[in-house]
Amino acid sequence: MLLSRYQLVRRSSASRRVAILAPITALLVTIVLNFVLYIAMGKAPAAVFYAMLVEPVVSWSSFSEVLLKMTPLLLIAQGLAIGFRANVINIGAEGQFILGAIFAASIPVWVPQATGGWIWPAMLLLGGIGGALWAVVPAFWRVRLNASEILVTLMMSLIATQLLAYLLVGPWKDPMGFNFPQSVMFQLDATLPLIIPGTRVNVALILALVWTLGCWVYMQRSFQGYKLIVGGLAPHATAYAGFSEGRAVWISLLIGGFAAGLAGAAEVAGPIGQLQRSVASGYGYSAIIVAYLGGLNPIGILFSSLLIAILYIGGDNAMVSTELPIAAVRVFQGSLLVCYLAAITLVRYRIVRVVTTEARA
Amino acid sequence: MNAITFVLAGMLAAATPFLLAALGELIAERAGVLNLGIEGMMAVGAVIAFLTVHQFGTHSLGFLLAGLAGAALSLVFAWLSISLRANQVAAGLAIGILGQGLSALFGKNYESKTVSGLPKLSVPGLGELPVVGGLFTQDFVVWIALLATFAIWAALRFSKMGLVIRAVGENPAAARSLGYPVIAIRYGAVLFGGLMAGFAGAYASTVYTPLWADGMIAGRGWIALALVVFATWMTGRVFFGAVLFGAVSLAQLAAQAGGVNLNSQLLACLPYLVTIAVLGIISSNRRLLKVNGVASLGKTYIP
């Protein structure tokens, strides 16, 4: 009897053509799947499509909002990708982001009358330090106690959310804020300078782009970056070569934590202008998607952060114009990563139809 | 009611979401598959069960559909990570985020709505005892979860199926050369994990706290994952770990009942802090993990 089945056969080298086609195909499939869902929810697909995927990029004012959203995603995802390539899975960027926001807010909360051009740079630096400090726990736990950084980083995020809630209902609550859980509004010098007149885009975008360039140089051109990548691919081989796994864990988590903390600082000192609960809006989790979607490559992440930022702004638009629930954006992001992971299988494997005669013992 | 009576009466119910999810994950991990999507599968199970019970008032139907929803989501995970050989970590995270998104989407119009829970069944005689009586007065699902724990313990230890699952997790290539269908067994183990996560979510949203709130799973899926590590992949220890976390998560209510005034955010953090602490203690015993660990856990199997 003739049997025919499909089998994955490893390519001798990864296909560059498929590597570029895979994310595009994944995006198209995701759009189709999600629009089937929107139709099932009784939404007009054309209106959703326009609001979600076209409107964010056709007017300058909404595209500037896309750039604003892209900034934290780009900062965080570049940091996470370094860890992911070294096989250090930091999924706690959300917590590191929150700590960055808290650390940065400490200046305007404690010295609200301070003035001077040093304030916002100091806030960004403090934010980065706060995020890195929050990553010290999972790094120590992994290196010294052998504990999974996946679980510890996530637990640290859940704790950070509670810490933020505590500060906002307790010691840092604005006494003049009508009992809302939020801090005082930051003074002007504690907010980031805007770079494009008429928009909310601030210096953090420049930092994110410089950071991207830095990550590209670090990962593609430096010896230490090379060691991290090889260590992620073949831990035993690198251990023989004298590269320390512990060092890779520390570097990955501290860089990832610093970048996420910096993004958190830029968020409170940028578009928000005060510490409030909505600071923790899931950028840390979306950045995981951004990192994978960009193929863990600094240039790829530039594109994937732009795409996810468009979806964020588009989701807001669709909520206003078609009453699409905002949770639909999370579904879109999640299903996009699912489709992408399915599609990139074809970068490493070919599908071959095998016809065999039945041969069973 | 004093704090001890209170914790004794409530800890098994509080433990049940942890226990069900961790038992499912235990089977998946024993077969060599690390499923990080548990939190999302629980969230989907929770919303499906809540909507069903809200609509029809039938808990059994709610649990059934929740289990199927969890299994359906785990099928996508299995397809990605087993058939398409995607990285298990990335696939699990993707499914987890998707599940949490779907949960928020489906539950959107039900925020703060409630359903009725389940009646408690008492063990005759034991249920009337002072102090410990509450321990023997539990709802139907708790009793089933206890039975399931015992059944899984026995199956892993004594049955041929349990032996095959362990063999597949330990050395898939060897299991395959003995003629066992590694792919099919891993699919089965992952689907079982998804089913149990769905049940766990259903219990959380329709029995333990029969009220819908987005994000109600609140990290319990992740704690279930940690529990499997704490338990060093042993069923009995999964049970004790789940009960410990049940008791810890009652601390907030117990403190109020006992008149102790502690910061509520700190109390909410308690399960997470305990997780980090225990994870450090257990994992630092490398020998223990090596002896009991699953050799192929997290590694993609290529036939």
Describe this structure in words.
Chain A has a single domain, classed as ABC transporter involved in vitamin B12 uptake, BtuC (Orthogonal Bundle). Chain A is mainly α. Chain A is built from 13 helices and two strands, in the order E-H-H-H-H-H-H-H-H-H-H-H-H-H-E. In chain A, helix 4 runs parallel beside helix 6, helix 5 packs across helix 6 and helix 7 crosses helix 8. The longest helix of chain A has 28 residues. By secondary structure, chain B is mainly α. Chain B has a single domain, classed as Orthogonal Bundle (ABC transporter involved in vitamin B12 uptake, BtuC). Chain B contains 13 helices and two strands, in the order ααααββααααααααα. Chain B has a two-stranded antiparallel ribbon. The relative contact order of chain B is 0.21. Classes of the chains: A mainly alpha (361), B mainly alpha (303). The interface between A and B is large, with 43 and 48 residues. Chain A: This is ABC transporter permease. Chain A: Keywords: Cell membrane, Membrane, Transmembrane, Transmembrane helix.
Sum this structure up briefly:
The complex is a heterodimer of chains A (361) and B (303). Chain A is mainly alpha-helical and 361 residues long.
Radius of gyration over C-alpha positions of chain B, nearest whole angstrom: 19 Å
Total beta strands of chain B:
2
The percentage helix of chain B is: over 70%
Indicate the radius of gyration of chain A in whole angstroms. Answer: 22 Å
Structural domain count of chain B? 1
What is the CATH topology descriptor of chain A? Answer: ABC transporter involved in vitamin B12 uptake, BtuC
End-to-end Cα distance of chain A: 14 Å
Spatial arrangement of strands, main beta sheet of chain A: 1-2
What would you give as the CATH superfamily of chain B? ABC transporter involved in vitamin B12 uptake, BtuC
Mean pLDDT of chain B: 92
InterPro entries (chain B): ABC_transp_permease
Keywords (chain B): Cell membrane, Membrane, Transmembrane, Transmembrane helix
Pfam family, one (chain B): BPD_transp_2
Main location (chain B): membrane
